[in-house]
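Backbone geometry:
***
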Amino acid sequence: MENMDIDNGFVGLIVAAILIIVALILFLRFVPVGLWVTAYFSGAKVGIGTLIGMRLRRVDPKHIIQPLIKATKAGLKITSNQLEAHHLAGGNVNRVVDALIASQRADIDLEFEKAAAIDLAGRDVFEAVQVSVNPKVIETPNISAVAKNGIEIIVKAKVTVRANIERLVGGAGEDTIIARVGEGIVTTVGSSEKHEAVLENPDSISKTVLRKGLDSGTAFEILSIDIADVDVGRNIGAQLQTDQSEADKNIAQAKAEERRSMAIAQEQEMRAEVQKMRAKVVEAEAEVPLAMAQALRDGNLGVMDYYKLKNIDADTEMRESISDQVGQSEEESE
């Protein structure tokens, strides 16, 4: 009996130990104790309950605690609740903390709420801080403009910009800067009397464009506009004149063809009228023999008179035949 009691007690201890181990494993799996210890010794005060709450809210604690440790070491006053709220809103916590640290080192006034708003707006807030410290160069594509003398000028410019932290939310981006610079170049070249003036003094383009305040309403501040390349393109004025001459020639040809068609139509109408008249003449001639026969019977027409009429008729037929042959030869020559 004593042996059985000992065995039962031993089994109970084993079962209890197993349950404790399983519970401990589940606890360590659910509660990141190692992360809590790291945060504690890094000076980031985070309670175990806070970590458990992150798990319950389906937030990976390392995505919050690691940036919090980094911010704490940098001397930033940020709470885990702020970072978690930004994470739940779909923001990039690590990028926001990096931007705040960079702005602090560069002595740029940037608060957490502003940085979070910029990040949620879809802009890279860390890159914006970098561009604010180290200006960025934007290269425009080839911009074609035409001077007043009709010569095309192809310009490529480099725009040096610095990010404006205050206008990052709601401000226009790089595409707007490029479009405005291109518009300014086209306006400046278009107002030049001759293209040689642009080639001799290309910096006049950058000076004129800078005076227009092209960075208004954008997320950048334009520091300088440098003309990287200036090339001479086509003679647009001469090409337009050539195109106009070709168009005038086509119009003249069309009008001439119209007049020719009208002349041909009139000629055909006249021939139709002639054919009608000839038909009437043939119809009338068909009645002549009957009338002549009646005149012979009545004694109103003599035999010699009849032969004279026949000779006149033969002469008329010969003249008409010659006229038709001449008309056909003229048509063939045309």
Summary: The first strand starts at residue 136 and ends at 139.
